[in-house]
Design brief:
Blueprint: E1 8-14, H1 17-33, E2 36-42, H2 44-53, E3 58-64, H3 69-75, E4 81-88, E5 91-97, H4 113-118, E6 122-124, H5 131-142, E7 151-153, H6 157-169, E8 176-180, H7 184-187, E9 190-192, E10 205-211, H8 220-227, H9 233-244, H10 250-261
Parallel strand pairs: 1-2, 1-3, 6-7
Antiparallel strand pairs: 3-10, 4-10, 5-8, 5-9
Helix pairs in contact: 1-9, 1-10, 2-3
C-alpha cells in the first residue's frame, strides 16, 4: 500500500476578518492542489516577522506599497519574496454614515463649530500595527483634531466596528477610520471624507507573499494559478459580511465562491 505524504504549507494570516477571507480563498486553492494547509493568525507586524523567520511559508494578504511596504522591506533583508495574485485593491479611508450632513465632505470639516457640537469626539480604531492606525494618528495631529478635543483610540476590530454600528443604530454623528474592503461597506452606505494632505496613503495592491526559498514546492502551473487569483473589494466585503455578520462557515463560503468561478 502506497501512502502519499502531502506537503504542509503554513500561511501567516493577519488576524482581521477580511484577511481571513483572502487566506481562506488561498487555502482552498492550495487544498485543491493537494497540499496540507495550516493557518497561523497574528497581528500585522508579527505576521511579517513570522514570514521573515520562516515560521510561515507565505502571507495573506500584504498591502503594498503603502500599508505594509515597510514590513516587506524588513523581511527581504533576510529572504527574497514573490508577490502572487491581485486579491483586491485596498485603501484606507475616514468615513461618516450617509445620514450626516452632506456639507461634511473632507477631514477639515470636522473642525467646523456646528460639527464639533454634534460629532462624537472618540474615534475608535483597530490595533497599533495597522496602516490605518499609523495614518490616523498622523492625521489627528496634522489636522489639529487633538487640539479640537477629538481622541483616537486603538483597540480590536470589534471595538471599531461595534462603535460604528452602535452609533448608526442611534443616528449619532461619528467618524470611522476604515478601509476597503471591509464588511461594513456591504450593508452600510459610508461616505468617504476627502483627505487632501495625502496621509491615508494610496490605493494598494493586496497580494500573497511567498518566500522565494519555498518556490520549489510548487510547479510552474501551480504558481501561475496562485498568481491568477484575482478578487475585488466588493467580493471580499460580501464574503466577509456572510462570515462576520451572517455566521456562515468561512471555508464553505470561500469554497462555494471559488467553485462558482470555475
Amino acid at each position: 500500500m502506497c501512502i502519499i505524504i502531502k506537503t504542509i504549507l503554513k500561511i501567516g494570516v493577519t488576524n482581521l476578518s477580511f484577511h481571513r477571507i483572502a487566506a481562506s480563498l488561498v487555502a482552498n486553492t492550495l487544498l485543491e492542489m493537494g497540499f496540507n494547509v495550516e493557518r497561523e493568525y497574528a497581528p500585522h507586524q508579527e505576521n511579517f516577522e513570522r514570514l521573515k523567520s520562516g515560521q510561515v511559508d507565505m502571507l495573506a494578504s500584504a498591502w503594498l506599497p503603502s500599508s505594509h511596504g515597510i514590513y516587506k522591506i524588513d523581511v527581504e533583508k533576510e529572504v527574497p519574496l514573490l508577490e502572487l495574485g491581485l486579491h483586491y485593491k485596498p485603501y484606507a479611508l475616514w468615513g461618516v454614515p450617509k445620514y450626516i450632513s452632506e456639507e461634511i465632505t473632507e477631514v477639515s470639516d470636522l473642525l467646523e463649530p456646528e460639527v464639533l457640537s454634534k460629532m462624537k469626539k472618540d474615534i475608535q480604531g483597530i490595533n497599533s500595527g495597522a496602516g490605518i492606525t499609523r495614518f490616523s494618528i498622523e492625521m489627528m495631529e496634522a489636522y489639529g483634531l487633538n487640539a479640537a478635543g477629538y481622541k483616537f483610540h486603538t483597540g480590536t476590530e470589534d471595538d471599531c466596528f461595534s462603535a460604528f454600528e452602535n452609533a448608526v443604530a442611534h443616528k449619532q454623528w461619528m467618524v470611522v477610520p476604515l478601509w476597503k474592503p471591509q464588511f461594513l461597506h456591504y450593508k452600510y452606505n459610508i461616505r468617504e471624507l476627502k483627505e487632501p494632505k495625502g496621509l491615508l496613503g494610496i490605493i494598494d495592491k493586496a497580494v500573497l507573499l511567498l518566500r522565494e526559498d519555498k518556490k520549489d514546492l510548487f510547479t510552474d502551473a501551480q504558481l501561475k494559478k496562485l498568481d491568477g487569483l484575482h478578487f475585488t473589494n466588493d467580493i471580499i466585503a460580501e464574503l466577509d459580511y456572510q462570515v462576520s455578520r451572517e455566521g456562515k462557515d468561512i471555508d464553505e463560503v470561500t469554497k462555494n465562491w471559488l467553485q462558482n468561478q470555475s
